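Dig into what follows:

_____
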Amino acid sequence: MKKQDLKANLIISGPIFPEPVQVMMTHDMGNLVKVIGKGLRTDKFYDPILDSDQLDSITASPEKEPFDGDPARFRLGIEGMRSDRLRRLETAGIITAEPEKKDGRRVNYRLTEKGIDLAPVLLELLVWGARHEETSAPCVFIDKMETHREQFLAEVRRRRRERDLTPLLPAFKVRKEKK
């Protein structure tokens, strides 16, 4: 890799890094280049000064992943993004992972106290979204949540505390677009 090809948001990897790294910025130092980046798995910051031999050992992922039409590969990519986000939420203490009792291969995620404290914020986003975007949620339901915020949030907390798995929101029929 040439140092002029290094740019912000590029994902690089090689023997210098223990994980793929997203380039935040670079600093040209004549025959050397300082790369400042963040690890994609650990969020650890890296700032090595690289010479041309080290640069040659680095590979970069394409800025946009090519989609070749293979639905299995697409699904794997989506699953990978989802599991990465779940891992970050778990690391941040917002959710906990619990193995499924009936099927140990499955994992259930639950909100922690820290996570449940986000409920008021999420409720406001939900109400805001329903006000400004088309949604399949009936207006009457959104109005009820908005008017009775405290009762709604108390029910969310009760369900978490009692491990009540009953869906809080009813299933809404998705509107079909008119052709």
Observations:
- The helical segments are 52-56, 71-91, 113-116, 119-132, 139-147, 149-161.
- The first strand starts at residue 11 and ends at 13.
- The longest helix spans residues 71-91.
